[in-house]
């Protein structure tokens, strides 16, 4: 009898051997799947770490390994970390409404935002930045260069850490307020309470209320206009052909003024009057140019509200891109402004009230913001765009336009506002207006039919998630004090370790 016959008789033939092999391969496959599942969340932090290491190596090659050079390298690393966090948190306010309205996919939104954020930072980013964060701390109080360097580093570290925590908690916060809080905390420890401009801080605290309220009111008024003039008239398509070009012209004019005021100062010197006239010219041109486009798009559309959404998709995408450009131009200084101040102070040996941002420093901010958006942005984009209230292209258009309108109005009135608070306030404003409008219509229909809506049914019809409102509001309120306390502690440690 052969060996094979003996194995078959004993139940140990090739078939059983294949079964054992299949089981082993199955276990290996399960192990590979488990490893992939475990390692996937580590990809984004790993890429972010590679970026920070690359920044450190580039800064080291540019500056050198001297004791003063290592301080600049350390500041560059912290600035890169800050830029990543700004991209993860702040940019969601620009792209969230477009994604929530289904006008853009998440992938398209990330690519558009990354391109326009980078373009805004590199083309129109401010080449001069205030080193004491808009006069929060008196420059005369921190003339010692070593004290000033550790103050800036402490503020930057504290702001970056707080924005990181806020992103993990799912709360969009103001990066400007985070930096301001950091400067205040370190400034108090470095130079005392009298060094801080507390009147300026009071105006910043007032913006916690002014910004979201203004953004919400403007967004709600725009939505009310669209409902009254387009969505709730008998011939919706004819009304859209009349009013949508007007709204596109308004959007184009407002964004032209906004970009002229906020994003193009590095290229040409523009005052408020010139910016307004630029906006008027662009708005009138866009109104005329968009009329035939809307005429073509509206052909064959059914006379229903759902059909109107397609007419607002393209303007919404354009507005999101322009907001990203303006954000890159305006807010990149939050990431690299303190780094530019450190570079100037270390290299020149003196403290200046304003400094130029070197090109390599600006590149760190631009690339870091875009990379942070791509790696960590989707979480807050979904929160802003989908989890506060339900958005469609018309509602999201109102949010985007209200952000630009509110910034312009606030600038003319001299009111301190936060673009983050305005955008999120606009989303809440749209949601609360929808609640009020829906309840009003339901009450009118109920009265006509002799029905009364019960309190339980009224609560079920709430269109804004209150839990997010509480989370966001709490994060806004504690941003400045938390950043200040954290920065104070960091400055105390750094100064005692280095200054003795």
TrEMBL record:
Coiled coil: none annotated. It is a multi-pass membrane protein. The chain crosses the membrane at residues 42-63, 69-88, 109-136, 148-171, 178-199, 205-223, 243-261, 267-289, 310-329, 357-376, 396-413, 419-436, 469-494. It is found in: Membrane. One of its GO terms (cellular component) is membrane. GO terms for biological process: phosphate ion transmembrane transport. It comes from the Bacteria. InterPro entries: Phos_transporter. Keywords: Membrane, Phosphate transport, Transmembrane, Transmembrane helix, Transport. Pfam families: PHO4 (PF01384). One of its GO terms (molecular function) is phosphate transmembrane transporter activity. PANTHER family: PHOSPHATE TRANSPORTER. Belongs to the inorganic phosphate transporter (PiT) (TC 2.A.20) family. This is Phosphate transporter.
């Amino acid at each position: 009898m052969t060996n094979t016959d003996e194995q078959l008789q004993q139940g140990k033939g090739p078939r059983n051997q294949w079964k054992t092999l299949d089981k082993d391969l199955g276990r290996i496959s399960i192990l590979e799947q488990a490893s992939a599942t475990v390692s996937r969340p580590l990809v984004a932090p790993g890429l972010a770490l590679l970026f920070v290491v690359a920044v450190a190596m580039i800064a080291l090659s540019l500056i050198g390994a001297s004791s003063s050079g290592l301080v600049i390298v350390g500041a560059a690393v912290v600035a890169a970390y800050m830029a990543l966090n700004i991209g993860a948190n702040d940019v969601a306010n620009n792209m969230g409404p477009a994604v929530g309205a289904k006008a853009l996919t998440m992938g398209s939104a990330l690519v558009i935002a990354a391109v326009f954020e980078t373009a805004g930072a590199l083309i129109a980013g401010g080449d001069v930045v205030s080193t004491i964060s808009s006069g929060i701390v008196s420059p005369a109080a921190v003339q010692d260069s070593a004290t000033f360097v550790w103050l800036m580093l402490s503020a930057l570290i504290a702001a970056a850490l707080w924005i990181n925590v806020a992103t993990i908690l799912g709360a969009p916060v103001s990066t400007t307020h985070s930096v301001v809080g950091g400067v205040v905390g370190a400034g108090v420890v470095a130079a005392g309470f009298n060094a801080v401009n507390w009147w300026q801080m009071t105006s910043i605290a007032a913006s916690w209320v002014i910004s979201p309220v203004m953004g919400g009111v403007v967004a709600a008024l725009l939505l009310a206009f669209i409902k009254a003039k387009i969505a709730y008239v008998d011939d919706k398509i004819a009304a859209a052909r009349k009013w949508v070009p007007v709204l596109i012209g308004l959007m184009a004019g407002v964004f032209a003024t906004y970009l002229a005021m906020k994003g193009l100062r590095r290229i040409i010197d523009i005052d408020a009057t010139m910016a307004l006239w630029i906006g008027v010219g662009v708005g009138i041109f866009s109104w005329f140019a968009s009329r035939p486009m809307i005429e073509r798009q509206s052909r064959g559309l059914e006379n229903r509200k759902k059909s109107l959404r397609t007419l607002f998709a393209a303007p919404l995408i354009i507005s999101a891109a322009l907001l990203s450009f303006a954000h890159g131009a305006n807010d990149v200084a939050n990431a690299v402004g303190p780094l530019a101040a450190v570079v100037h102070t270390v290299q020149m040996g003196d403290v200046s009230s304003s400094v130029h941002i070197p090109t390599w420093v600006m590149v760190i901010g631009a690339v870091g913001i875009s990379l942070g958006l791509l790696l960590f942005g989707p979480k807050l984009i979904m929160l802003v765009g989908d989890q506060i209230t339900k958005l469609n292209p018309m509602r999201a258009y109102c949010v985007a336009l209200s952000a630009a309108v509110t910034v312009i109005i606030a600038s003319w009135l001299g009111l301190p506002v936060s673009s983050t608070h305005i955008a999120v306030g606009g989303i809440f404003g749209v949601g609360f207006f929808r609640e009020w409008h829906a309840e009003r219509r339901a009450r009118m229909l109920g009265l006509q039919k002799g029905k009364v809506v019960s309190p339980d049914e009224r609560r079920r019809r709430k269109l804004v998630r209150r839990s997010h409102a509480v989370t966001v509001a709490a994060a806004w309120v504690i941003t400045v004090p938390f950043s200040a306390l954290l920065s104070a502690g960091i400055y105390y440690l750094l100064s005692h370790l280095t200054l003795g």
